[in-house]
C-alpha cells in the first residue's frame, strides 16, 4: 500500500528593512538576487528558522514582524513559503555557503536586481504589503497563479 499523504517542504522568507528603509537581498549562486529564505528544519519553529536563515545567508540579526504572505507552490516539489516582514537589528553583511553576496537596496534597485519571475512577484507583493496576510497558490513551468486572496483585516 503506497502512502499518498501530502508532502510539502516548509520554507520561511523575510523582507528585511534597515533604518534607512533599504531592503536586504542576498545573491544565491544559481537563482540570483532574492530575499533571504530557506527551509524550516525538523523540530524548529517558524520564527527560529527565520532568524537562523537571515543570519546564515546575510550575517545579520533581525526582529521578525508580521506574517505578510503565504505562498503555496503546488508544482512538485510542493512547498509552503511563509514570508514575514522584518527589521534589521545588528550585524555586518557577509556571504555564506548559501549566498555569494548580500546587500542593501532601495525598493526600486531591489526590483531591478530580482530577475526571477516568482521571486520578483513575491518581492513586489511584500513591498506593497499593507495589512492582513496575502495567500497565493501557484504552479511553475510556466508560472501561473491559481488562487490569490487576502486573509485577515478587510
TrEMBL record:
Family matches, as Gene3D superfamilies: Nucleoside Triphosphate Pyrophosphohydrolase
InterPro entries, per the entry: Nudix_hydrolase, NUDIX_hydrolase-like_dom_sf, NUDIX_hydrolase_CS, NUDIX_hydrolase_dom
PROSITE patterns hit by this protein: NUDIX, NUDIX_BOX
UniProt cross-references to SUPFAM superfamilies, sorted A to Z: Nudix
Record keywords, A-Z: Hydrolase, Magnesium
Pfam family, one: NUDIX
UniProt cofactor(s): Mg(2+)
Chain ranges of the Nudix hydrolase domain: 6-130
Domain of life assignment: Bacteria
MF (Gene Ontology): hydrolase activity
Family: Belongs to the Nudix hydrolase family.
Designated name of the protein: Nudix hydrolase domain-containing protein
Species name: Geomonas silvestris
